[in-house]
Write a structure and sequence with these properties.
The structure is a single chain. The protein has about 325 residues and is mostly helical. The protein has two domains: about 160 residues, no CATH class; about 140 residues, no CATH class. It is about 80% helix and about 0% strand.
Length: about 325
């Protein structure tokens, strides 16, 4: 199995960078709590399948040209999903759903071609992924309460797969898996740096603006250290020590699920920085205050969950 991230996977991550930017824009100027709910549901579906590809590439040797081209096609699917995010409650819903369906089908097919026990294990989770994709597709054609019911059903189906322990029998490379999740955190933190740069574009460079940027970079650096400090290697070592179904459980709960609040939290912080930089000394709006404080809270809750599940003090 793969031990380190390969160039194709790093290229694959560039699509995720764009998706993160689109999601951040969705919560930068929210009109109410329903915008946060849509962003959260969209994020969960996106990261669920993206994590699915992290599991996949940990099993895939990528020596066959067909595997490379099919992964490239999956990139197209993720990119179309990202394009639909800004208007996912309206016109963007159908492109997102079609991209999602393509990604799900490719994920199942590529996993079935692997030379590990994962080639059979994928058929335990495939029905849940496919049903979730169908619900998201149906949601693109309705509005109002029906739209929300279908989206909640889509995400609820994925949670049921977890409760039924469908991750059992999957195999992975612990070093590769830990590295790829670390790269996702780097991508999200990179969005916070980009948010500062985009927000500062066209503004006069004053001492106050420079101070704001400095504090923003220090905040991003602090989040980086919180994750990539000594405990990060201890968590990876714990994943390496685990075997069989225990390793799969730690990978799903300790990495997949605990990284979700961390990633979404960083996006909320990025949204706050991008908007607040225009009025660094002014009174924060409710949305910006919530994005900054709520984002930090989510990040540290996810980090605590990560350390607890991996047995890191």
């Amino acid at each position: 199995m793969c031990q380190n991230a390969r160039p194709l996977e790093l290229f694959f991550d560039l699509v995720f960078v764009f998706a993160v930017t689109q999601l951040t824009g969705l919560i930068s100027h929210p009109h109410g709590w329903l915008d946060y709910l849509q962003a959260l549901l969209t994020f969960f579906s996106l990261i669920w399948m993206y994590d699915g590809f992290l599991w996949l590439t940990s099993n895939l040797d990528l020596e066959a040209d067909s595997d490379t081209w099919l992964l490239w096609l999956a990139m197209v699917g993720f990119f179309v999903m990202a394009l639909g995010i800004p208007t996912i409650g309206g016109a963007g819903g159908l492109p997102y759903a079609l991209g999602y369906m393509l990604v799900v089908v490719l994920h199942i097919y590529l996993f079935s071609r692997t030379q590990t026990t994962s080639s059979l294990a994928i058929f335990g989770v495939a029905p849940y992924n496919f049903f979730s994709a169908l619900m998201i597709l149906y949601a693109a054609f309705v509005s109002g309460a029906a739209h929300w019911v279908l989206w909640l059903l889509a995400i609820g189906t994925l949670l049921v797969a977890t409760l039924r322990r469908r991750e059992q029998q999957f195999t992975l490379s612990a070093a590769h898996f830990a590295e790829r999740h670390g790269l996702l955190i780097i991508i999200a933190l990179g969005e916070s740096v980009m948010a500062l740069g985009v927000g500062a574009t066209g503004l006069r460079i004053t001492p106050l603006l420079t101070l704001f940027i400095t504090l923003g970079l220090l905040l991003a650096g602090h989040l980086w250290w919180s994750y990539f400090g000594p405990n990060n290697k201890r968590a990876e070592h714990r994943l390496k020590e685990a075997q069989g179904n225990e390793q799969a459980r730690l990978a799903l709960q300790g990495y997949n699920y605990s990284h979700m609040p961390m990633l979404f939290g960083i996006m909320m912080v990025s949204a706050a920085l991008e908007v607040t930089i225009h009025h660094p000394a002014g009174k924060a709006t409710d949305a910006n205050a919530w994005n900054l404080a709520g984002g930090l809270l989510l990040f540290y809750l996810g980090l605590m969950m990560f350390h607890r599940l991996l047995g890191v003090s």
